[in-house]
Amino acid sequence: MDPIDTNGRLSPPLKRQRTVSPSPPLYRETQAFDTSTARVAVSSLRSPQTQSLTNGVGPRKQSSRTNYRLKLTLTGHKRGVSSVKFSPDGKWIASASADKTLRVWDARNGDLEQIFEAHTAGISDVAWSPDSKTLATASDDKTIRLWELKSGRMIRILKGHHNYVYCLNFNPQGNMIVSGSYDEAVRIWDIRSGNCQKTLPAHQDPVSGVDFIRDGTMIASCSHDKLIRIWDTNTGQCLKTLVEEELPPVSCVRFSPNGKYILASTLDSSIRLWDYLRDGGKVLKTYLGHVNTKYSIFSAFSNDGKYIFSGSEDAAIYVWDVQTKEVLQVLRSHEDVVLGVSAHPTENLLVSCGLDGTVKIWADEREGSSSTTIP
Amino acid sequence: MNLSLADPFSLSQDYPEVFSHSLHYGHSSCVVFNRRGDLLASGRHDGTVVLFDVETGGLARIMRGHTRSVQSVSWSRDGRYLLSASLDCKCILWDLEDGSRKRVVRFEAAVYYAELHPFNYELFAAAIHEDFPYLIDISNPRTVRNKLSSLPRKSPTGSDEDETPAITKAAAQEAKALTLSTLFDSTGQFLICATTRGWVNIVHVATQSTIFSTRITKSAIVTARLSLSGRSLIFNSRDRILRSVHMPPLTDEDIEDPSDILFEVEHTYQDLVNRLYWNHCDISPTGEYICASTYMNHDVYIWETNKGSLVKILEGPKEELGFVDWHPTRPMIVASGLETGRIYIWATNNPQRWSALAPDFQELEENVEYVEKEDEFDYKDRAEMTKARLDREDEEVDLVGMDDVPGDLRDDEKRWTMPVLLDIEESSEDDDVKIVGPTAATSQKKKKKGESAGGADEKKGKKRKAGD
């Protein structure tokens, strides 16, 4: 591996030490391989490690327990997978990896659809355009690239960041991208022209997460400088900064589906739900139980807004009840740190990725859940 | 949704104050925002219709179809369809889903103005050169053209003593009256037609009959605009006076006795010193302000309509301005330059609030003596405090519900979003899209300094440069 081939998200951000083993044992050349054997179908097996935690508390009111089971394991990435996202139309899964490739899989059966290669260093994040036709990737080669799903072509290259690009997101209108980088700036890009529109001098440490609110008028950014900032998209001005005494470095930030709250993961193994509108911002919920002290691990809301998912450094995925903060389920199957999770936009499906180089699809088999599409 | 966090001071700004930036892609002859305010349509002198993304300043669409200058563009309510009227005697209805021409309607003469019905995109009214206005129905494959009259409605015999002699005297001339503007009222039931003889005719759309006429001036009315709220009208006439009219409530019941409609000039606006002609005018969405571009002058005037006083003269470009349009939600005005065809944009200047960057600091007016709080340095067990805090987190949160979220789009306006095209033909033009102005400059400066202090001077310098 050449020296530039680091990966922002896969290296613990504070120490920047490389932790990805060069070739995970599961590695197979997916392109040449028959896809039906390349992925490990375990839908028939009940994964013995999957366990539900009861926490010694009896079932609380209305917390219907999730019952996620491993459906598919998608292998092919040659190094750790840093980010995984369902497309907004729910048909595809995109996974970005330190092996410099972006892969798109069929969400239904896990078939490999496309491999996008052009980045010259590892990829830290991937985002879907709202119409599910375009993908954007943030890479350690300091560029953002836009890809067309249908043709598999690279259609834009956005240059401007002075250091590794760490995170990015589309706005809901699909005409802009916001990106955060190790150069401590947040940039807003016009995707039609590929020009950088604004550079926000956002933070004093690498920017670890950026997200647009549902109508695109505001941007939330977070950084290892322990701040969460909210920006006006139009004017580029900071509207609010969320701080708390002794808040550890922030590693992931996202707006709730209705835009009223902000979910922020911090490197003290906790995830906090903020009411950012309240004077100075107020933490409404703290979700604990998982391990997160080194990596920028993604968290996600379920599509109905009842659960919160996050990866963990103990190789598991945690599911919390939003209201009671109770850990409802711990999903184990990954062999190393779980970095990315994403919830399906309509069905009770979950996808995860991690340092072990695999992407795993999970389905909720609880009674009354609608995830019966996977054979 | 940013309203809840925005600086109340900047929200209280109702009208633009500073030149922001300019857009340039060909020679623009008319500019109109869509209802949501995220796109700006620009009709060009060469007949091309161009859509700009207001947020990014970038090109969103290029649509070719006309062969001569575009005179007006009109958006459908949901923003999906765009009607362009041109001197090449055509009106084209564009479907912005894919940029295709949904319908082309040909006329015998140049089209001055065409406006889509507010709710039915298959119905529009057009003002034609040397001809009567038309109401065009394109819901069927065969275009239905209904000719409307430009003549004022004949008063019922003896109903109004004062007006009757005026009508008879001018009757011969009236026959030559031309309609230059055809506006739909906010319900879409009535058309407001302004003529070169200073008459305003209200036409019932369903019956195509003129139900009411009034003469507000003796000279030609060249522009008529209706506010987004549908309650204020503004007329620009050749006698150098702008007239604002409070839109009378028009419902079907009123037709019983149309002569009762109260249609009176509320305020007149003119520059008594310079005796300026007004090129074009527009009303702010709420009807609180009007703006107008000036003939042989480079400024845009803004008046407030409550008292009719002048509040601002916007400067910036070094050329005469034609079309002006007020943004539907923001304090923002666009105007097209007559000479270069550049599109100029004025907006507000929002300074960064320091307290937003560092919430644990407060902005103080003067020195305040510090008073220690009772328990400020008390010893507290951290673990216990954390536990207590976690226990307090029992509030119900709703992550999905959209009730009481301020500033969210209304349902009828968010139905359709234009697909983002990434392969608009850009290279075929000689002059690329250029955004000139302090917007780009400030972001660069911010990058360097990281602060916005002292930005005023630098911004001014950039502004001048942009104007050159």
UniProtKB/TrEMBL annotation, chain A:
Q: Which CDD domains match?
A: WD40
Q: What Pfam families does UniProt report for this protein, alphabetically? A: Beta-prop_WDR5
Residue windows of the WD repeats:
74-115, 116-157, 158-199, 200-241, 243-275, 300-330, 331-362
Q: Which UniProt keywords apply?
A: Repeat, WD repeat
User: What InterPro entries has UniProt attached to this entry?
Assistant: Beta-prop_WDR5-like, WD40/YVTN_repeat-like_dom_sf, WD40_PAC1, WD40_repeat_CS, WD40_repeat_dom_sf, WD40_rpt
What PROSITE patterns does UniProt report for this protein, alphabetically? WD_REPEATS_1 (PS00678), WD_REPEATS_2 (PS50082), WD_REPEATS_REGION (PS50294)
The residues covered by the WDR5-like beta-propeller domain are: 73-362
Renumbered residue ranges of the record's region Disordered:
1-28, 44-65
Reading the lineage from the top rank, the first entry is Eukaryota
Any one of the GO CC terms: histone methyltransferase complex
Extent of Polar residues compositional bias: 44-55
What is the name of this protein?
Answer: WD repeat-containing protein 5
Which organism is this entry from? Orbilia brochopaga
Gene name tied to this protein = WDR5
From TrEMBL, chain B:
Q: Where in the cell is it found?
A: Nucleus
Q: Which InterPro entries does this chain map to?
A: RBBP5/Swd1, WD40/YVTN_repeat-like_dom_sf, WD40_repeat_CS, WD40_repeat_dom_sf, WD40_rpt
Highest taxon above the source species: Eukaryota
- Where does the record place its WD repeats? 21-62, 63-104
Note down the stretches annotated as region Disordered.
Answer: 427-468
SMART domains with a match to the protein in the record = WD40
Q: Which SUPFAM superfamilies does this entry report, sorted A to Z?
A: WD40 repeat-like
Keywords, ordered alphabetically: Nucleus, Repeat, WD repeat
- Highest lineage ranks of the organism? Eukaryota, Fungi, Dikarya, Ascomycota, Pezizomycotina
Is-annotated flag, keyword Repeat?
yes
Comp. bias (Basic and acidic residues): 456-468
Gene3D superfamilies, A to Z: YVTN repeat-like/Quinoprotein amine dehydrogenase
Q: Give any Pfam family that matches.
A: WD40
Q: NADP as a keyword?
A: no
Give the protein's recorded name: Chromatin binding protein
Naming one, the record's GO cellular component terms include: Set1C/COMPASS complex
Q: What is its main location?
A: nucleus
